[in-house]
Amino acid sequence: MNLLYTASGFGVGLLVGITGVGGGSLMTPLLVFLFGFKPAVAVGTDLLYAAITKTAGVFVHHGKHGSVDWRIVKLLALGSLPFAGLTLYVLKNLMAVGKEVTGVITFTLGVALLLTALALLVRSVLLHRAAKNGEIDDEHSNLDNSGRFSPRWEKIATVATGAVLGVLVTLSSVGAGALGTVALLFLYPKMTTLKIVGTDLAHAIPLTAVAGLGHLSLGNFDLELLGSLLLGSVPGIWVGSHLSAKIPEYFLRPVLATLLLVIGLKFVMQ
Questions:
Q1: Is residue 219 left, alpha or beta, with left meaning phi > 0 and alpha meaning psi from -120 to 50?
Q2: How many domains does the chain have?
Q3: Predicted pLDDT at 267
Q4: Range of the domain at 121
């Protein structure tokens, strides 16, 4: 076990516990820039790390809160899992062109980080507007989850959103959290925030697991790194969850978004 990796896992876990997002969007750049891992190895390890850590969260959301809409999870997965597999197939067949593959992953990582930063800012605006219009009420979970489109287009839009997330998450390990919640906020404005988080979390598990196992089969994985990160992140998330009530979200989210914008630009311009 590497104590620096464990400390990094604790730090990222702390931020995830406080803000609810930032796992992949912070962990992968940290592994690349601070520890010098190849982008592909950082992405593959982070995907398996995410699949394991998010599983515990879903047990809480499904068992304790009943806040997972499995119908929406299935629709998202209908798009994301096939496209994750397709993306892995393309990566495998491009392995001979190693430098180009690394370039694609690095650029996609940068774009995903920029989108995540914007998503963090947009999410706050959407939540504020929805609460003002009475569309979201966290104290009442009996609101229907009807979308803003007709039932037919709602299904198509949800599957298409899953497909986009499948490609982005497989290439960069970023987007399953922040981008997923923003997409759900837009598609299903009547869902409670708790259900949005629970549903997004439940969808992220099979997606990150499939993408992570795919990267594992390509050799993009570091077992020692995974163990060290998990050792630090679990207590980090626990501490962060308790601190979240004391640190105002309106302060943390712009700081996190700015950090992601800077890192994203660095990746895109490489």
A1: left
A2: 1
A3: 76
A4: 3-268
C-alpha span between 204 and 206 (Å, rounded): 6
- The residues, ordered by sequence, that sit 6+ positions from 103 with a Cβ below 8 Å of its Cβ are none
Cβ neighbors of 247 (< 8 A, separation 6 or more) are 18
* pTM for this entry: 0.77
- Which pLDDT does position 81 carry in this prediction? 96
Tokens 């966290």: give the residue. Answer: 138
Tell me the DSSP string of 78-139: HHHHHHHHHHHHHHHHTTTSHHHHHHHHHHHHHHHHHHHHHHHHHHHHHHHHHHHTTS--TT
Report the distance separating Cα 168 and Cα 176, nearest Å: 8
pLDDT digits (tens, 9 = 90+) for 216-240: 998 888 999 999 999 998 888 888 7
What average pLDDT is seen over the chain? 80
* Distance (Å) of CA 68 to CA 44, 58, 191, 196, 218: 26, 8, 11, 8, 32
